[in-house]
Specification:
The chain is 46% helix and 15% strand. By secondary structure, it is of the alpha/beta class. It has a single domain, classed as NAD(P)-binding Rossmann-like Domain (Rossmann fold). The strands form four sheets. It has a seven-stranded parallel sheet with strand order 3-2-1-4-5-6-11, sandwiched between helices. It has a two-stranded parallel sheet with strand order 7-10. The chain has a two-stranded parallel ribbon with strand order 8-13.
Length: 381
């Protein structure tokens, strides 16, 4: 209602300035109103906001009139992404660099930035294979960071949080596609287990503190890049996810793409996933934030699957990329990778109906956007 009043008044003011002969008086009022409008923007803390999904969500939040404040330790991203966010939106988000496991620095952050309305928590270690090799790193980073955030929510009166969860909490489901009511199974990797445990932490904290509201968004496999080709997936070091490894192989940075396993119980023997465009995914976070801020949640803690409802095999993605781009890939079948599940895809009915959100981009559009991003990054014509 406040924003509606301001927008109407703002339009009337523009008309008045245009017609007025005493512009020097109204220009002052005009500048004051711009400052007032900025102060009215709702502040959203984005942890891991320079990362892949986080940066795209920052763009969508700015586009929807929010004021995102980014916290990231830059362990798997670069602060340069902030400049590209500014090129896309015209706004450079506020940025603070520190690790969420440092409670003193997190407290100092909330002392500095008051009146935060909600948190979107992306910051986490996220590679399945690496988590098998380095489980303590994943448990320490992923669990402690969320617990520190919830402590600060309670201390500083921040009611709302969106948690970046994962379809890995379903393990290898017995029935496909999976709904939000599908039972969670024992995790196949330490990474998946941190998502499962973090959901439990959030659920129990909200149950004990009814002033809190939370939404866990269970992602399927985010791929692609912003249509501007200014932001996309840029892992530091060797990519742990399929599509950046594909694009880096196509660009000549990697000599060979490894396809982990061709003996799964799937039509072509390779693992099947539900691949969702990252911009579609980012928009779902804005919808979730608005749902809580507008008091539309039907429970203090809610869960939604975010996917397309379609499953594609690794080899289908490889061939789809080749068809969409005209670039042939050098790939090799190797042994299965520890921690990977065989096949999973989403039933998105609940998210579509309840959130009013739906993935829109086609697989071809998404793979092309990833390649456009890679080419722009590497100055490939």
């Amino acid at each position: 209602m406040q924003n509606l009043f301001f927008n109407t008044f703002f339009k009337l003011l523009i008309t008045f300035i245009y017609r007025s002969k005493k512009n020097h008086h109204v220009i002052f009022l005009f500048l004051w109103l711009i400052r007032y409008q900025k102060s009215m923007k709702q502040k959203i803390l984005i942890t891991g906001g320079t990362g892949y999904i986080g940066s795209h969500t920052v763009v969508e939040l700015i586009n929807e009139g929010f004021e995102p404040i980014v916290v990231d330790n830059l362990s798997n991203s670069s602060a340069d992404v902030l400049d590209n966010i500014e090129k896309i939106t015209g706004t450079k988000p506020v940025f603070e660099q520190f690790d969420l496991t440092d409670k003193a620095k997190l407290d100092a952050f909330f002392e500095k930035y008051t009146n935060i309305k909600a948190i979107i928590h992306f910051a986490a270690s996220k590679a399945v294979g690496e988590s098998v090799e380095k489980p303590l790193l994943y448990y320490r980073n992923n669990l402690v960071s969320l617990m520190n955030l919830i402590d600060c929510q309670l201390k500083y009166g921040v009611s709302n949080i969106v948690f970046s969860s994962s379809c890995t909490v379903y393990g290898q489901p017995d029935v496909l596609p999976v709904t939000e009511k599908t039972s969670r199974k024992d995790a196949e990797s330490p990474y998946a287990n941190t998502k499962r445990v973090n959901e439990d932490i959030l659920h129990d904290a909200i149950h004990a503190n009814p002033q809190l509201n939370g939404i866990s968004l269970r992602y399927f496999n985010p791929i692609g890049a912003h249509p501007s080709a200014l932001i996309g997936e840029l892992p530091l070091g060797v990519p742990q996810n399929l599509v950046p490894f594909i694009t880096q192989t196509a660009a000549g940075l990697r000599g060979e793409l490894k396809v982990f396993g061709n003996d799964y119980d799937t039509p072509d023997g390779s693992a099947i996933r539900d691949y969702i465009n990252v911009v579609d995914l980012a928009k779902a976070h804005v919808v979730a934030i608005k749902r809580m801020l507008n008091g539309q949640s039907k429970a203090n803690y809610e869960i939604f699957n975010l996917g397309t409802g379609n499953g594609y095999s690794v080899l289908e993605i490889v061939k789809g990329f080749e068809k969409a781009t005209g670039v042939k890939l050098n790939y090799k079948i190797v042994d299965r990778r520890a921690g990977d599940i065989e096949k999973i895809w989403a039933d998105t009915t609940y998210a579509n109906n309840e959130l009013g959100w739906k993935a829109e981009a086609t697989l071809e559009e998404t793979l092309l956007s990833a390649w456009k991003w890679e080419k722009n990054l590497r100055n490939i014509l």
